[in-house]
Amino acid sequence: MNRLPAHSDVFQAVAHPARRRILELLEAGELPVSGLARGFRGSAPALSQQLGVLKKARLVRERREGRQRIYRLTPGPLLELTNWVEVHKGFWSGKLEALGQYLRRKHG
Amino acid sequence: MNRLPAHSDVFQAVAHPARRRILELLEAGELPVSGLARGFRGSAPALSQQLGVLKKARLVRERREGRQRIYRLTPGPLLELTNWVEVHKGFWSGKLEALGQYLRRKHG
DNA sequence: TTGACAGTTAAGCTTTAGCTTAATAATATA
DNA sequence: TATATTATTAAGCTAAAGCTTAACTGTCAA
Questions:
Q1: Which residues in chain B are closer than 8 Å to A99, comparing Cβ atoms?
Q2: Nearest CB to B27: which of A73, A84, A91?
Q3: Which residue has the higher pLDDT, B51 or B104?
Q4: Which of A81, A99, B29, B88 is the most exposed place for a label (fewest CB within 10 A)?
């Protein structure tokens, strides 16, 4: 694309590790961009653009304070994700054989 | 791309509604592609390619039977997703104000 | 008022996603 | 053997994701 990504979808928003990281950082409380930047590998524009995606998905809100912009988590839309997981988790964990195989392979 | 998508990442795999749909269909039990096709809007190659992505993410396994290919759910890798949700849900639901706002806005 | 600071926006570029149509592979059946 | 069935692979395309560098905006401070 040439503009900011268009997706306002939570699943999409959460698909990128950098964005998950940002959400995690904001769990401890609101932060200015400079604060987020300390936990973020990448340029300032890249961070700003990822924040743009999260804003579009309504997962964060921005407030201006002096020359800083303070971001805070607005986790409402995550309900769509948690709900999907809740609804289907039962089925998945019911499939114990496959799950067990996975765990053995992964953790020995 | 020119080849199949490269991501073997669960968050990424689950980001596309068609792929979530496929996982949901397979919750009821294994299915041949023709069975999946009935719950899938899109061409046969598109379906096959989405199945390829899920296979790469190890979320499904394929077995041949006559001229059919039977797919079944192997939900192990979904642990990464459910785990992330579990770990962070506490923080999110702690933010009751924002959550409440979201619910009011969404459901009146 | 000039300059530094905090951050975003613009523009351009490369890579990936996801579709399409056409071709291919493998099995079953007449 | 020829043909239909079931599905994948190939090739090509469009659009979106995500980065980069450069330019810009708004605020503060000397």
A1: 75-76, 79
A2: A91
A3: B51
A4: B29
